[in-house]
Write a structure and sequence with these properties.
The structure is a homodimer. Chain A has helices spanning 27-30, 52-70, 91-97, 113-126, 141-148, 202-220, 236-249, 261-264, 279-295, 313-317; strands at 3-5, 9-25, 40-41, 80-84, 104-106, 133-139, 164-165, 168-175, 181-187, 229-232, 258-260, 276-277, 301-309, 324-333. By secondary structure, chain A is of the alpha/beta class. In chain A, the strands form two sheets. In chain A, strands 1, 2, 3, 4, 5, 6, 8, 9, 10, 11, 13 and 14 form a twelve-stranded mixed beta sheet that branches. In chain A, helix 7 links the parallel strand 10 (229-232) and strand 11 (258-260). Chain A is globular, with a radius of gyration of 18 Å. Chain A starts with a strand and ends in a 6-residue tail after the last strand. The relative contact order of chain A is 0.19. At the A-B interface, helix 3, strand 5, helix 4 and helix 10 of A face helix 3, strand 5, helix 4 and helix 10 of B.
Chain lengths: 339, 339
């Protein structure tokens, strides 16, 4: 029986943990500042597959296999597999599910998918539905760019506000078995659309949604100590500045504890312009950068806010603006399992 | 705390009900054998909108507004909005969510989306997460056909195994408040792929997945009375025959209690070939045909098994077969609220 705290925070009653996880990326992400922390990386974006879409599916299945192995688990131990990606009809995830016996719940939350999945997995476990639930999210630079923007081979010049869709997948296995990483609460997001229509500036479109969710969390939990870190999913350089400014306008000065996964994944010298993006961005940075710091005691309480732009090429072509969403997950350090 | 029954059935502990619902369709569905039972129908597939995609979004928002009104509820009463559709990046659903203050959880289960959403909504409510949760699913013949097959204007001759994607949406509002329709259990589906690659014969591709879920339910619940009706989502004429045959091969003779939403939506004279399909098919037939019969006492226990083909045009073009899934929801008559 989860407990609702004020307007939109749900605190889980059972102790739910990230039992195991793994991250797999492409070569550009491996070459970035946190590249050494990924569990595995492909030598190139195809990794020997016949298409970028098949390569993205392999990112997902490798991540899941590694997460299972790191947790001394078998695929047969999974009671559910949840996940999504940015491809039409989420084929990278569905074709990964094909290799499993576990029931599959497909999600579409654009780049917010990881936190949507972590919320649902924790809520199911909190209700004793399943003992081990895997959550996957991925994106692939080349499969996404050609689907959502231009054929990759055209080499269209990118605007400075554009972000670089990450070639990355993360897989997280949740269970009630204690680990250093406890998921204690969640703030599910609502759709916010401030009228931005430029699909080369998704960070600006998503910033108000991130602000909405972070402000809801801070207001709901004003009697609790602040998190050590609030990290958004993929607002990038431009969007994260807007998000911090919007929060400041509401009286929340979080600058000292705020970061964005899209700003951590690449080095500015890698020419990604406004930083990283994609459902795989937060899925890779959470495992490679944040969870180790929690285990080491450098961080004790982290609000992860994965952000999603719910547009499609069709909606853009039909003149629509960009509805956005952000789901927050609170991860707290379980000191008895950390060292 | 939900209870797991044998391999894959989950029984909810709280009493969870379909508190209100509404169905909206296009003119062809209205002209069909159960057309008089839909809450509203569009005069044509555009309904005055500038595109089929915008028309599909209106199907969804009309269905939700009607479901709220029929239940004497306001949009502000919703704690969550769950749903999905077949469009790339589920824009019909995301743009419906834009008009709401409730948190949004986007789903992609192809035509199984309704039952995926009903399962998750019931599981959340069972864990006291939310008091009213809306679940939407839709499809639109013209937006889907041009996206998944050929430009609609080409008028490509359809194979006899092909089904007609329904222009339809259903919206279901779940809560613990008693109604005639109690959701007592669910059987989440796993991905099954028997190697069918023909996207003009999705019924055959999905039949093994439907069989897998129905057989799991029958085996898990062999000590309980059989449902009065087991109804699959959109296997159509061909797929539903295959499903019944596959179950018979496993020793389950369900012919007398088995039906398929895709076979009920249209009259054979409407030239739909193998029947109806689409995420809106089961979403419309459940509300228009099944729930009234439960309320009237003609049916007491119904297993609804929405079926989804998890392909995309890209996966088909890349030579892939069709992974399929089927999620089952058990709806039982609450006689104290029926008359």
């Amino acid at each position: 029986m989860a407990e609702k705290i004020n307007s939109r925070t749900y605190r889980f009653t059972r102790d739910i943990f990230i039992n195991s996880y793994a991250t797999v990326t492409g070569p550009k992400e491996y070459a970035g500042p946190i590249g050494a922390h990924f569990d595995y990386h492909f030598p190139d974006n195809l990794n020997g597959e016949a298409s970028w879409e098949k390569s993205e599916q392999k990112l997902q299945s490798y991540a899941l296999e590694l997460a299972l192995a790191k947790g001394n688990l078998e695929a047969e131990d999974l009671d559910f597999f949840l996940g999504g990606d940015l491809l039409n009809q989420i084929i990278a995830t569905s074709f990964t599910a094909r290799g499993l016996n576990a029931p599959f719940l497909g999600l579409y939350g654009a780049c917010s998918t990881l936190c949507e999945g972590l919320f649902l997995a924790a809520a199911l476990l909190d209700n004793h539905i399943g003992a081990h639930i895997a959550v996957n999210a991925s994106s692939h630079h080349d499969s996404v760019e050609r689907q959502l923007r231009y054929p990759t081979e055209m080499g269209v010049q990118r605007l400075m506000s554009a972000q670089w869709t990450a070639t990355a997948a993360g897989s997280y296995i949740l269970s009630p078995k204690p680990s250093p990483w406890q998921i204690t609460a969640a703030v599910p997001g609502r759709v916010v659309d401030w009228g931005i229509a430029d699909n080369n500036d998704l960070g600006s479109a998503m910033a108000p949604a991130a602000c909405d969710t972070i402000a809801a969390f801070l207001k709901d939990n004003q009697d609790s100590p602040l998190p050590d870190l609030i990290i958004s999913g993929d607002l990038g350089v431009l969007g994260s500045k807007i998000c911090a400014k919007l929060l400041l306008n509401q009286g929340y000065d979080i600058e000292k504890i705020y970061a964005d996964c899209g700003c951590l994944l690449y080095d500015p010298a890698q020419d990604t312009h406004s930083g990283g993006s994609g459902a795989g961005c937060s899925a890779a940075v959470l495992g490679a950068y944040i969870l180790p710091k929690i285990k080491a005691g450098e961080l004790n309480k982290v609000l992860v806010v994965a952000t999603g732009a719910l547009l499609s090429p069709t909606s853009t072509q039909q003149g629509e603006t960009i509805p956005s969403i952000a789901h927050g997950i609170l991860i707290e350090r379980n000191s008895s399992e950390s060292r």
